[in-house]
Protein 1
Amino acid sequence: MSRLWSLGFALALATAVLSPVAAQDYPNRAVKIIVPFGAGGPADNFARILAQHLQETLKQPFVVETRPGAGSFIGTSEVAKAAPDGYTLLMMSNTHTVNETLRPNRPFNLMRDFVPVAPVNYSDLIMVVHPSVPANNLKEFLALLKAKKGELNYASSGLGTPYHMAGELFKAMSGTDIVHVPHKASGDARTAVIGGHVQMMIDAISTTAPTVQGGQLRALGTTGKTRSDLLPDVPTIAEAGVPGYEATIWLGLMAPAGTPQPVVDKLNAEVNKVLRRPETKEAWGKQGVVPIILSPTEFDKYLRGDIDKWAKLIQTAGIKAQ
């Protein structure tokens, strides 16, 4: 028994000694970032931007792979099962913190099966309708929803996504009834609204502003506390008819549980270097996107707080996974 104990102690000591060395050498091969959402959405776009910067600074390929489906479960489950060595990362969003309550039968537990690496950014959303909808502003749309209770639809990129929850929050706070139509990816949902198959969507302002400016969609309101610099003539939903309404989409990186802390810390430091660059802030600001800079410990606290926030809303409003 004493020999086994000695062997175990020696192994633990060796691991403790080698971890910093491993972190110094990390990465020595390609790193994969799994995006559990569709191509062309905010998570995919910013994962690729971040991967390019990390590849330049860490001198190894950072490869982005989209694994959409099952409301983010397919790609997320793949990362949960990956080796905890820092070579497989998850680009996650507040979809994941929502699903901790909304979808209790998940094949993973966010705070058990993953470790926080770093947040990336957040942005406001925007409510848009197809031009054929007979409503030029939010008050007219609210009146239309009340006149046609349960007859109109809104699109999202899937259950538990920020677009879904923003729609449910709008329903709860406005006292209206509009039917949720989930899609596999945000691009699919956006296409459905542009094509007039679904009447409304609350989408990321960074990807939707061009469709508004091009006349493909009509903007009724943005979801932040203040108006967006991208579309300053569009009022917030709060000022346009639903006081107190606010919703955002945010993104972050996590790794499989058991990933060595020195590797997590190194990734966090490198991500934060990218986010602190003036050119990053300037370029993202033009898209209505704000970098979030936190340590792994701070991000852990942020995640737990967001899980609690959405749990209260889901339980209070009686929101169910459809």
Note: The two ends are 55 Å apart (CA to CA).
Protein 2
Amino acid sequence: MEFNLSRVQDWFRDRQGRTKYAVIIGKHTQIYPEQYREDAETTIIIDEYMNLTEVQNQILDFLPEAAYYDRNLYGAENQIIGQELAFDLDPENVVCPIHGTLQEKIGRGQGLSFCELELDIVRREAIGLYEYLQKRYSDLRVVYSGRGFHLHVLDKDAYAMSTEDRLRLAREAKQQGFHIDEWVTSGEYRLIRLPYSLNGIVSRVVLPLKKSELDSFDPIRDSRCLPKFLNQSIF
């Protein structure tokens, strides 16, 4: 995993409560260390550690295709004391003028593939959703997930929202035309990609961005998104 540990620590600097992490070793890629063959397709939770260095060492041992953190906040007795609000925008969920809907692409055997046009559409959606959320929240972060974009809401009152309130907000955003994953925003799916880790399915680094960077952001060619093992000259 090619991330700067100090940057990961900075990401969690204001987080109250204990965080759990998770990895998926090889569910999609079918690439995994032989000793973890039986667990390759399962989600492995990392909740016993002393510090982030130990978390990093455990992740490196698994060599996973994906690393996540749990948006739930846990107290001293492992009780849930809140959950980070987040929005997930993926390019396969937009209607492409060339390739059509997700269902049409699956019908052609293209699975969850996406083109540069779809990526650009979802980038513009991320800008719009950020500006929409700014009307009610003040502490927002945006992350390129390796495929699409995640918007994180770190306002304290957002951590206390109920599942019903989160779902209502997700549906309100969808009514505004944003193609978000309701399951993520409602909190039913609480794992989200760990910033600065590698999205092994597409070989891109999960990268936090400033909102001002979104207008010109090009994840296909931006060197910050490319892991060291890729030959950047081909781009």
Note: The mean pLDDT is 91.
Protein 3
Amino acid sequence: MASRHTLAREVSVQGVTLHAGVPSRLRLLPAAPGTGIEFRRADLKGSAPILALWSNVAETRLGTVLRGPDGATVGVIEHLMSALSGAEIDDCTIDVEGPEPPILDGDALSFLVVIDEAGTRAQGTREAIRLNRPVEVTTASASVKLLPAERPEFHFVIEFDSAVIGRQEFSCVLDSKTFRREIAPARTFGFFNEAEQLRAAGFGRGADLANTLVIDGDRLMNAPLQRFPDEFVRHKILDAVGDLKLAGLPVIARFEGRKSSHTLNNQLLRALFADPANYRIEPG
């Protein structure tokens, strides 16, 4: 039987947040078996822990935002959650001094480096979710689905008007080594013509040419930062891995996304758990 894992010791990192553009310090701590992933707003005294679960997602427009029982929120958690998933961390307490984790390099790899520094420890028995039948959510322009599979698989298709991206497609069987090599290094991206409007609305104030791939028309403004020719679709898979981590247990299934978003990813989990006949829980 597979074991659950937590961190071997406490570790911390600090930086600037993506949207608020303010300093943030992150402490990752070992947690008891069965804790799951929980966030604590260390800068808000007395605030309740926020369990990293699909049912606690409060906002998805420009990142996945969790809300706790007392109204405290923590935003843009998908890159960190993706790294925890890729590192197979089941139990972890995360103290955040700020409204979001720091953006660091705009990827999941920078969080994996922090997790590697802490090391991991096995504890308890891991369970996993397996699909009994397909679950799908669609809109007029996008779709996302989970299909029964023997191992985690991801397939994603995106399409943008910019020649920098165009149509990109990527598939992989996802294990910890593949995640670290093919998905975790993929940086987030944004469009230069949207930056001023986003910042005026309080978003993207921490994004810069060192942590975000910035597209200006048909030109990538910081091309030396690009790690893969198809980095944009790989980052969409990175986000999806983080969003699926909010299931609370590993999901053993094939994920297929077509122009999907944080919103659709969360709706997919809500559809999955809406009917217990959709899935079963087995030793992981």
Note: The two ends are 7 Å apart (CA to CA).
Protein 4
Amino acid sequence: MKILITCPPMLRRIEEFRHIFLAKNIELVLPNVVQTLTEDELVNIIHDVDGWIIGDDPATERVFTVGKNNKLKAAVKWGVGVDNVDFKACEKLNIPISNTPNMFGDEVASLAVGYLLSLSRQTFYIDREIRKGNWVKPAGRSLKDKTIALIGFGDIGKSTAKFLKAFDMNINIYDPFAIKSEVDLENYTFCEFPTNLEFADYVVITCALNSSTSKMINFSSISKMKDGVSIINVSRGGLIDETSLIQGLNSGKIAAVALDVFENEPLSIDSEFIKMDNCILGSHNGSNTIEAVERASLKSIDLLFNFLGI
């Protein structure tokens, strides 16, 4: 039996998990993946494997069909986001599949908070200037009583809201499917997007990418925000229309951004964001802690083994 793994965080730690597969005489297929494989690369590999642990690759109907017509019996999406996986195709092809939900709430939330702190105190800018020999002292912004527009109130959003509340910030939640406890209703204000965006000092994005959220941060929604707003995205690049975001940065409408994700990854060295000093740029690394990778990898293995009956 062969299992394909295309999730970079798991691949980088594969020696920690290899013994689990060896114990069941499973051969691992471990391609060199920087961020994702292409659809064509997957088609050339998928025909020879029984199971697949998916990263952020284009897990399309075409790929699954080639797999199903050969040996593929089951798949697991490592992590929470599923916008790259055609679950309907799996259902049609009778391929058991699952993601690993509720794995990274605190981890991704802590990165969002780290970005917020860095933007508010300009620590990223200070670091860059000190390395150049410039002893700069820019004035930061206090967080108390500032307003957050938090888009998404799932596992990651809830953790982010919990952390931010400790700074005595006002938190407006945008999530039409939010499950609200009495404590949530006491601590947060729930709004319908884009209502009240004009009051937000920071916009923090933690929601899933789907047809209703794609490019929801665009020229129209940005125009409703207050001048000098800062935007943080730790979810999916496709939630933001990057052309509108760059226009907002160039005009000064947007003071600064912190982006862990982009429409196209890895980010091109020719990207406009690279040239901007008021941007913190990440590498889609929000879930990548030692503990979280172990947790999600073991869960993925367990789910896949159950699907395969081994």
Note: The first strand starts at residue 2 and ends at 5.
